[in-house]
Amino acid sequence: MGESWVVPARGYALRELVDSTFMPTAQNIVYETTNPHTSLLMVAARVGIAMLPRHALRDHCAGEVATPATDWDPPQLTVRMIGRRDTQPAPAVRKLIQALREVSSEWSRNYRRERSKLPPKP
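^ that's the sequence the OP posted. Answer follows.
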């Protein structure tokens, strides 16, 4: 029958990744949640296994709950914005663009730092 899964609710990108990569059947999904912390608690209680983003594991000792299953590269998210050439973006749009650039830059730095800690691939 396979493993019991604690999965993100439908509509979340991580749920799509779990479904497409591991294809847990409906009878193997024992809990759906919108909160990664809830997933951690369910795994700790041995309800099932879960696939979680790295940021959800920051405050948890890896030996307690989580065991990295793989060194896969994370899914990529592409954000595209469309604007008119003959007008300037509104101040709120400029702030959004700047925030997206900052978050992307920070995520890239953290990702490279975490990848550098992994043992080399054979």
